[in-house]
């Protein structure tokens, strides 16, 4: 690769590590003028989009990052270093999105429509993670699976978000070695999560039913 490309990528990486979104994007674009198909440049550019998080812009920024990552055609040239950058950017973005959405809801929960908006936001970041998981070059990458396993064990915030873990299971469950082992652990952790939630809702529904029966008896006394 040319010195111009290497220099642009070095500068882009330095800007990324410094959290400078615009500068990183600019240097990635410079690299892409030299090599328009560069997988590493596209991976870094998509990750840079997610650097400056705002709750209002999260949906569009997430979609923009996904589109850039989806444009990677020469997957074989995408290095593990840049796969790691994408994965870390995606999970960090999801975490920031969840935290900001929860904080916003807690502050404005009494406002009309706040609950519906909170539900919609959870659906949006769940869809973002589904789209990340759908990237063919990331589905069977051990680090992505490990982070997914950790997320499931911590209890995924939205049941809708479970679908991205289920997707990874369907893609990798018959594979052997490390990939198959991690996938099996995700499947087991997900089954435990669903069981805990089923028991929780069973208790809530049962308690509500008992309360209604007691109220009915008292009213008829």
Quick description:
With 221 residues, this protein is mostly helical.
Report what the structure shows.
With 221 residues, the chain is mostly helical. Helix content is 76%, strand content 0%. It contains nine helices and no strands. The protein has helices spanning 3-17, 21-34, 39-49, 58-70, 80-108, 114-133, 142-153, 162-172, 177-220. It starts with a helix and ends with a helix. The relative contact order is 0.07. The model has no long low-confidence stretch (mean pLDDT 91).
**Unreliable segments (pLDDT under 50, ≥5 consecutive)?**
none
Based on secondary structure, the structural category is: mainly alpha
Looking at the structure, what is the overall shape?
Answer: elongated
Instruction: Name the average pLDDT.
Output: 91
How many strand segments?
0
Number of helices, where a helix is a run of at least 4 consecutive DSSP H or I residues? 9
What distance separates the N and C termini? 87 Å
Element pattern in H and E: HHHHHHHHH
Helix content: over 70%
Radius of gyration: 22 Å
Portion in strands: under 5%
The biggest beta sheet, please?
Answer: none
